[in-house]
Specification:
The structure holds 2 protein chains of 2 kinds. Chain A is of the alpha+beta class. Chain A contains 28 helices and 22 strands. In chain B, the strands form 2 sheets. Chain B has a 6-stranded mixed beta sheet. In chain B, strands 2-1-4-5 form a 4-stranded antiparallel beta sheet. The chains are: A alpha+beta, B alpha/beta.
């Protein structure tokens, strides 16, 4: 441990250098805050998911679900009446928006009140008292709903009031019959995202006819015989699963997305570490003489080392605590952004919670302390090299750095090689990809001193700027103070490369999505059923559409999501082959051959589906799907690029689908129109003629593309927020560096001022030095940022999500990054140059 | 060149208390002479040099160097004056550690813009004169104390200023080296016709001096008889 007097000496320095102390705290706080904010966002999503899907499971042990998330009511009747199984409950579920709650999305649950008492601990209140009877009372009052008491009180919704429910373009007015409550806290929270009606009302609102979503079961543990008996009465495409397995497969969808966010937040912490390293190094450098004196008085190397580490850990603790508070505040914003993206991309989160657990806070605190410890390690090791009394001379230190340059550079190259080797390893474990990326970043950082020296010396020699104080002296200062300047350049380079890397990745992604939309969305108008999970439109609409002038051709689309089995969550789309336009990753032959195989029972699968199921490009792949005629095998004849379904997509010929699924329903219709007729007028015509009789959403080609791009942009809002935070940390880092560098050179600057350097010249020199640091950081960030983008596009995205993206490098990213880099460092140089210029020369000359 | 202080007062705040260094001090130094300021530590020798050099300004009174009144000048003009008319030599050499011997020598020239070949040749000549022709590309920390002080002398002379101010130039050197540095300064000053004022508490410098002053209790007195 460190003695009290040593600590007093140590902290007296920090008391005198409050700005630097503040910067250490900010560095740690910002890094920790980003980690906490993302952690809170991810765990809130997880908790919201749990509340949205799992908490209402109650005592359910198994669920009967159909491969298309629909079951005929007849199955329930057979189970109850023919088989005599009593502990089961039919459920109808879907999502509606409620006008009176600001169009909030709520889960509509249609239940059978008599069956419910075995399953869920939900009490209803229609008069003054909560009881399970209120649920049964609803039976006598069909067409009414129950809503969470908490929510109703908050929104001021009394019983008897009509609520306006929107399901797609269909509006229903439903009266509030009573309130819901649960003694179980988890269920109570979940109820705030739910409205309950009887089965038939829910079927009517959700346009489900005589179908239900699932049947919940209670089967004694180990009672395989009952499950076997139930299994026997089920049609081939209907299966029994456990609720946990079902929700697990849904939850897995967004986990790669969340993991990527976490990795980004760790990158922010890494930039923060450079900041701490920088500041602690300067704190050691400035106290070199004092530490030398302490050594001469008998303070051991170990005590000096412990002092530096201990100080940083103390600051690490304070900074981390500040970071926790800031992180919780930032978390409010990130929860909203991440929940929005998850709802856009993966599943509806009907309940949104803000989940801050002590585990996250302790984890972030631990990371902050670890980051502080590792950041202080090298400066602490440098401090123990200080010989007693004789303070290490500055140029000796630079001489040492110069001698170390070859070793550092070789080390950098070795790290780059290791990073590349790790990235090449074909594995889906993202830890390898992120590990490789980290090696590349550190490798590049170690090459910075050598490259800075080479470039600055080349500029000095080639442009003969040896003379003149501004750039000449600044360049010499940068190259001959590499032990200091290289750290600043590295930190800024990493932050700017993150900006470039993420920028190029988002641009590449956006370009790929736009290109994909252009290739895929070929028809002029699309009409689809309103249920996101199970879109259906009555087939008679085809005839009615044919009567509308301006429509040239109609192509039928049938789509649904597989609800159970190995391919749960995968979208199946049955289409007329004439409208299939895809960007092929692989196809089995030319167009003629391909469509012949397709019509003969072959299927196309999306790239993600192929990736998830380990299918390489080429012949020999096939998939087994549960049809109405039992399990059937379909050969894969093409793999296409797709961004619409994160779980993957299977496309088959409409005729093949009808043959095996015995299903003539349609989910949507793609329309082409005569070029002479405006799209808007045809859409208006369709709405006027058909909206009252059919339940559909109509969109133009352009609006679908726009909506898709809007979702895309929303998804990447969080990434942009992280970019801004990284830039902020970098700015503080470079400000801190320049400030410390100037403080370290106070005496030197005093000599220059005494020798006749004007304040303007001093300002110019500091600004030139800052500009050079920014310029070099920006230049080095260009290749590193491009490499990061390449890794993000071709390795991390591919391994996380299975997407092949086009790598699009727009030069504005480079110009923007260089601009940010130079501007950040120039701005960072303003205050130090002002402060140092104001200092009295006499005082500056007295500085040790 | 005239160097004159008229009714100059200077004080510092130390621990919240005002500490008077000089009150109404008046003194005139002879142009083209080697003047030595003697006095104990803290007597005000460095303060006097700083006032003459325009590094510091008096609380009241006037400091004349040549025809200029430094007390009335703006910070900018005082800086330019320092650059062109004065050369400084400090106790701790105060070389820029990241610049070579040659670059340190040229530093003040560079403050006025790019250095041409002629100026570079002048700097090289001065370095030859101070005996550092072999060390022009060395870094300061690779030089001995005596060598570093010789670089500082070369730097002070490189812009050919009429006045050189030296604050304890031998204070950080051993006796032998200190003496050789003083010899060199005296030789160069006389050869080049400069005014040199040295603040020191070493009586070694007396042997080279034309004028000697002693500062004591805020007063400055010419010393005619050291015994």
């Amino acid at each position: 441990m460190v003695s009290k007097s040593l600590l007093k000496i140590g902290f007296s320095y920090h008391r005198k250098h409050l700005l630097q102390t503040f910067l250490i705290l900010i560095g740690i706080a910002l890094g920790v805050a980003v980690v906490v904010a993302i952690d809170i966002a991810n765990s809130s999503v997880s908790r919201s998911f749990q509340l949205s899907t799992e908490s209402l499971t109650g005592r359910t042990t198994h669920q009967i679900i159909g491969s298309q998330a629909r079951i005929d009511e007849e199955v329930f009747r057979t189970l109850r009446v023919d088989l005599g199984h009593r502990k089961n409950a039919p459920i109808v579920e879907g999502y509606v928006q409620i006008k009176e709650l600001g169009m909030r999305t709520m889960k509509l649950l249609g239940v059978d009140p008599f069956s419910e008492r075995h399953f869920r601990n939900i009490l209803g209140r229609s008069s003054s008292k909560f009881s399970s009877g209120a649920l049964t009372g609803m039976l006598a009052q069909p067409g009414k709903l129950l809503i969470s008491e908490d929510l109703a009180l908050k929104a001021g919704i009394p019983t008897g009031k009509n609520l306006t429910l929107f399901f797609g373009n269909r509006e229903s007015q439903i009266e509030v019959y009573g309130y819901l409550k649960s003694q179980d806290n988890l269920t109570q929270q979940a109820l705030s995202g739910v409205i309950i009606t009887d089965i038939s009302t829910a079927q009517e609102i959700l346009k489900m006819g005589n179908q239900i979503s699932r049947i919940d079961l209670i089967v004694k543990e180990g009672d395989e015989a009952t499950l076997k008996v139930i299994g026997k009465i089920l049609p081939p495409d209907i299966t029994i699963v456990t609720p946990q397995k079902r929700s697990q497969s849904i939850r897995q969808m967004s986990q790669s997305f969340e993991l990527n966010l976490m990795a980004m937040s760790l990158l922010a912490l890494l930039v923060g570490m450079f900041l701490i390293y920088n500041t602690v190094t300067f704190a050691v450098v400035q106290r070199r003489k004092m530490l030398g004196i302490l050594r001469s008085l008998g303070v051991t190397r170990k005590e000096v080392f412990t002092l530096i580490i201990f100080e940083t850990i103390i600051f690490g603790t304070i900074g981390s605590i500040l970071g926790l508070g800031l992180g919780v505040l930032l978390g409010q914003g990130t929860v909203h952004l991440v929940s929005q993206s998850i709802s856009d991309l993966y599943f509806v989160l009907s309940v949104k919670v803000f989940d801050v657990s002590s585990f996250h806070l302790i984890k972030a605190m631990g990371l902050g302390l670890l980051a502080s410890f590792f950041s202080a390690l090298f400066p602490a090791l440098e401090s123990i090299q200080i010989a007693p009394v004789v303070a290490q001379r500055r140029s000796s230190l630079e001489g040492y750095t110069a001698r170390m340059l070859p070793r550092l550079s070789i080390g950098g190259l070795v790290l780059l090689a290791i990073g590349s080797a790790v990235l090449i390893i074909e594995t889906r474990q993202l830890v390898f990809a992120f590990g490789g990326l980290l090696f590349i970043v550190f490798g590049a950082a170690l090459l910075v001193p050598f490259l800075s020296k080479i470039i600055a010396s080349a500029v000095l020699n080639v442009f003969h700027v040896r003379s003149g104080l501004g750039i000449g002296l600044a360049l010499r200062n940068v190259t001959r103070s590499l032990s200091r300047s290289a750290v600043s350049i590295s930190a800024l380079m990493i932050a700017v490369s993150v900006i470039i890397g993420v920028g190029i990745m988002v641009e590449s992604f956006r370009y790929s999505v736009v290109d994909w939309l252009k290739n895929t969305i070929k028809a002029d108008i699309y009409i689809v059923g309103v249920n996101r999970e199970f879109p259906v439109i009555e087939t008679s609409i085809i005839k009615r559409l044919a009567e509308i002038p301006g429509i040239k051709e109609q192509y039928i689309i049938r789509s649904f999501k597989i609800a159970s089995g190995n391919y749960a969550g995968v979208s199946v789309m049955a289409q007329d082959r004439e409208i299939i336009q895809r960007k092929w990753i692989w196809k089995s032959g030319d167009k003629k051959e391909l469509y012949a195989q397709f019509s003969g029972g072959g299927v196309f699968v999306s790239e993600i589906f192929a990736w998830k199921n380990g299918m390489g490009a080429g012949f020999g792949n096939s998939i087994n799907l549960m049809t109405k005629k039992g399990l059937k095998t379909f050969p894969v004849v093409g793999i296409f690029q797709d961004f619409s379904s994160r779980q993957g997509m299977i496309v088959m010929d409409s005729r093949v689908y009808k043959k095996y699924w015995l299903d003539s329903r349609i989910s949507g219709i793609a329309l082409t129109i005569n070029s002479s007729v405006p799209v808007e007028s045809v859409m208006e015509h369709i709405n006027q003629k058909l909206a009252a009789d059919y339940h559909f959403m109509i969109s133009s080609n352009a609006s679908i593309r726009k909506a898709a791009i809007d979702v895309f942009d929303r998804t990447f809002t969080i990434t942009i927020a992280l970019q801004i935070l990284a830039a902020l940390v970098a700015f503080i880092g470079v400000f801190n560096s320049i400030m410390s560098m100037m403080l370290e050179r106070t005496r030197e600057i005093g000599i220059l001022r005494a020798s006749g350097m004007t304040r303007i010249q001093l300002w110019r020199m500091v600004m030139a030095e800052s500009g050079i640091i920014g310029g070099l950081s920006g230049i080095f960030a260009l290749p590193l940022g491009t490499a990061l983008a390449w890794i993000l596009v071709y390795i991390i995205n591919k391994r996380s999500f299975g997407w092949s993206l086009d790598f699009v490098v727009e030069y504005h990213h480079f110009i923007q990054a260089l601009g940010i880099s130079v501007l950040a460092s120039l701005t960072a140089g303003v205050y130090p140059s002002y402060k140092i210029g104001k200092q009295a020369i006499v005082d500056a000359l007295r500085t040790e | 060149m005239r160097i004159e202080l008229r009714e100059v007062s200077k004080s510092y705040l130390e621990g919240g208390k005002k500490h008077n260094i000089f009150s109404d001090l008046t003194v005139k130094f002879t142009s083209g002479c080697f003047s030595v300021l003697l006095g104990k530590s803290g007597s005000g020798k460095s303060t006097l040099l700083n006032l003459i050099g325009g590094i510091d300004i008096p609380d009241s009174g006037n400091v004349y160097v040549g025809n200029e009144n430094l007390s009335q000048m703006s910070d900018y003009n005082r800086t330019l004056f320092r650059r062109r008319k004065l050369g400084f030599i400090f106790q701790f050499f105060n070389l820029i550690p990241t610049l070579t011997v040659m670059e340190n020598t040229l530093l003040i020239r560079e403050l006025d813009g790019p250095v041409d070949k002629e100026q570079r040749d002048i700097a090289r000549q001065i370095l030859v004169e101070v005996g550092l022709e072999e060390r022009m590309n060395a870094m300061p920390d690779n030089l001995s104390g005596g060598e570093q002080q010789r670089v500082a002398i070369a730097r002070a002379l490189a812009y050919d200023p009429p006045i050189i101010l030296a604050d304890e130039p031998t204070g950080n050197l051993d006796h032998e080296t200190g003496r050789s540095v003083l010899e060199m300064m005296a030789r160069l000053i006389r050869e080049k016709g400069k005014t040199l004022i040295i603040a020191t508490h070493s009586e070694e410098a007396i042997a080279f001096a034309d004028d000697i002053y002693r500062i004591e209790s805020g007063l400055i007195k010419p010393v005619s008889d050291l015994t």
